[in-house]
Amino acid sequence: MPPRRILSLWLPALAMDRHRLAHGEEEPGRPRVLIANTAHGPRIAALGRPAAEAGARVGMMLADARALCPRIAAAPRDQAGDLALLEQLAVWSGRWGPWVALDPPDGLLVDVTAVAHLFGGEAELIGDVHAAFARRGLAVRAAIAPTAGAAWALAHFGSGGAILEGEYALTEAQRHGEEALAAQPLDTAEPCPGGEKAASRPNPSVPLRLCERPNFSSFYELPLQLADLPVAALRLESAVLTVLRRLGIKRIGQLSGVEDAASGRDAIQRRFRNRRSPAANPLLRLDQLLGRIPEPLLPVAPAVPPLVQRRPMEPIRHRELLDRVLANLASDMARELERRGEGARRLELGLWRIDGAVTVKRLEMAVATREAAHIGRLFAGKLDDIDAGFGIEMVRLRASWTEPLALAQVGLEAAAEKPGTTLAACIDRLTVRLGERAVSRPVPFASHLPERAQRWQKPLAPEPTSQELLAFHHRPLKLLDKPEQIAVLYATPDGYPQRFRWRGAVHDVVCVEGPERIAPEWWREKGGTRLRDYYRIEDDAGRRYWIYRAGLIGDGRGGVPDWYLQGLCA
Amino acid sequence: MPFDNLASQCDLAALTARRSERWRPGLGGACHSEIFACSREAGGAAAALALALDDRRHAQSIEGSQAEDRRAVLWVQTREAARLTGRPYRPGLPAELRPRLIHVLADKPEDALFALEEGVRCREVAFVLGEVTGNPRALDFTASRRLTLAAERHGVPLYLVRLDAARDLSSARMRWEVASAASAPSEWNAQAPGAPAWHAELFRARAHAPGKWVLREEGRGLVADRPFQTPRTASSAPQDERGFSVSVRPEEGAKTQSERPSRRVSILN
């Protein structure tokens, strides 16, 4: 796989350029600004060089700017129009790479992996970009780097037309398919003298090369060209930038230097520990910049969901006809999905009635499918309560969620050997009849409390990773939804239970094991929650239960502790 | 004389010989079993799981496949059954079933029967375990026969736990009555409950004679003991009546022997 290369395009004067192209050049001596109306009056949202030379700044009140330069010409800013132009430019930028993502408000990211040779090299590619935008009369700054973050930083804050060589990180993580490794930064990466030596001085005219070839030991190392950029090149919110400035961290290299120091990363991590958004967490942005964690680009590709519809000559008033139309639609949909190489996960059946009412029935499948018979059968169970009124004039089937499904010879051998449905079809049928929540599977969850240690999720969803339970903990086969209170005879304060009453019958306890003390989760629960002492018991008839005493006498969290029966052992 | 020709007598003799072979673990079960149990304990479901795993091992030994069975296991409960005896708890399940369990919660017995039938028709399910309380009207002989035929056609075993139910009409091939038994002494702690055991009475089976056992799991296999008294429950009366032993109490064993032919004829008819 070739190393990943991202081209970042920044149109620094997008609004001004668009206004100029639409309304012509500004008059000499009358600098033009674009204004946005705010709660306190019009503020300057964009301006050109003449206005800046006259003393106006972005964010300044228009009245203040007029005080500085009375001949300023103001025009309203059209933000929606700018975005529309950006989207148009995104489609147009497909000429340099097949995968273009918007970077609002004024940028684009193009994946140019393995594309540059078509233009004669990356420098020529950037030259082509500059020439193409110049022909359209738009100012642009472009940079190519292995990650979107680095390309963005260089386009906004680097020298013009910078190219950052190197294949670090993301490609390597992708190659090994180890996102877990990518999420956990390698702190043991050794510094590579070769990589730093190869770094040359920034030169605005000549595109700049940092490493001559990808160097494995220099992965995750910060290239010199990026180290000099300000922290604003990390695409952070202004509040975070303020915090970093107050901490004295002004350049990316400083942040990286702090991080390299012993426990430096921990210190930053602690400060920003509850910032999940990358724009608010400099460490996440730094990791994205260096490719330690992946940053997917959302392409601007128009998504047209598969859609088939029928308009019968006469309105449908009877169920048999509707079933036949539905079967036809399902086979149309299956053909359409097969053409695209996809399978449907969610289907919407719309029924347009003559009197204007529209009924929509939704269906969600456990795995992607395009079996017409299966789809028809699933919908048939949902059409029982349809009110056709005076008749249904249009039926439309739309696959709002599809997943790739390759052509395969599905189950020919298996179906011939063993009759029966597949598990996915079985789960679909159960879900359609019994409801979404009726079919589930237990998955472990990291908690000490028994009832929280198990969660229910969709039956075919992948199982979350978890730590295995310790083997010496005996757990019951079944757990009651809600622990039931029992009356227990026991030697206070913490003796073994000897006899208890549950659901109106008395059980004599013969064998006891315990207590297994489970403390409340103090980080989650209220302060007054009591601990639990669990006992595994067996009564005189051999029935085995799992009971607990909630609290201790004198623990200051209530009176005499209650007993509960929570589980039934095998 | 009910039998006219020799051929039917031979058939009868073969069937009698086969039926006189007592059930034992590892012999393989039927495609549709019913386990009657009390809702105050989890013994019914636990014994059903033990029987299912035992049958699974038997099927694997017949197929000669060493591959680990990774097919899903469907556990269907009515809401009432889940309320009375709780839902399956993953850490307490047999380790091989933990990642494979799919749980279905049905509001009504009709829905539970639908889910059971769908599960039995699915070729990617190892076995289906159902829990239904009482004797719902929907679970009549027709429904039970429908389940039996579907299970035998697709080869997916069904273990239906009947909680607090009367022994109604059913076409299940093996019908058990299960109750918890005193556990074996624990290995480390004399006070603690040990490995679980269950009193199991096979009161109606197509291919086996009825009988009573104490089932328990040992190592990776199911063990069926004759119900001798265990020392821990020597003083409790119900165990005496439930268990029987040929050597200790010959008169009760003789009575059981004399009962058996009449049952056999009734089944053959």
Structural write-up:
The complex is a heterodimer of chains A (570) and B (269). Chain A is of the alpha+beta class. Chain A is built from 18 helices and 20 strands. In chain A, the strands form 5 sheets. Chain A has a 6-stranded antiparallel beta barrel with strand order 15-16-17-18-19-20. The radius of gyration of chain A is 33 Å and the shape is extended. Mean pLDDT of chain A is 84; it is low at 169-219. Chain B is an alpha/beta fold. Chain B has one domain (27-225): P-loop containing nucleotide triphosphate hydrolases (Rossmann fold, 3-Layer(aba) Sandwich), CATH 3.40.50. Helices cover 35% and strands 25% of the residues of chain B. Chain B is globular. Chains A and B meet through α18, β13, β15, β17 and β18 of A and α2, α3, β3, β4 and α4 of B. β13 (439-444) of chain A pairs antiparallel with β4 of chain B, so a sheet runs across the interface.
Outline:
Chain A is of the alpha+beta class. Chain A contains 18 helices and 20 strands. Among the domains of chain A are: 15-78, 3-Layer(aba) Sandwich (MutS, DNA mismatch repair protein, domain I), CATH 3.40.1170; 307-433, Dna Ligase, domain 1; 478-568, no CATH class.
- Under CATH at level 1, the class of chain B stands as Alpha Beta
Low-confidence stretches of chain B: 231-269
Q: Report the C-alpha radius of gyration of chain A, rounded.
A: 33 Å
Q: Beta fraction of the residues of chain A?
A: 25-35%
- On the 0-100 scale, what is the average pLDDT of chain B? 81
Query: What is the CATH H-level superfamily of the domain at 307-433 in chain A?
Result: DNA polymerase, Y-family, little finger domain
Tell me the Rg of chain B in angstroms: 19 Å
Assembly of the depicted chains:
heterodimer
- Largest sheet: number of strands, sense, barrel closure of chain A: 6 strands, antiparallel, barrel
Provide mean pLDDT of chain A, rounded: 84
- Relative helix content of chain A: 25-40%
Helical content band of chain B: 25-40%
Question: What is the second-level CATH architecture of chain B?
Answer: 3-Layer(aba) Sandwich
The CATH topology of the domain at 307-433 in chain A is given as Dna Ligase, domain 1
Number of strands of chain A: 20
Main CATH class of the domain at 307-433 in chain A: Alpha Beta
Please name the two chains that share the biggest interface, counting residues whose Cβ lies under 8 Å from a Cβ on the partner chain.
Answer: A-B, 57 and 60 residues
Judging by the overall fold, what is the CATH architecture of the domain at 307-433 in chain A?
2-Layer Sandwich
Classified in CATH, the superfamily of chain B is: P-loop containing nucleotide triphosphate hydrolases
Strand content of chain B: 15-25%
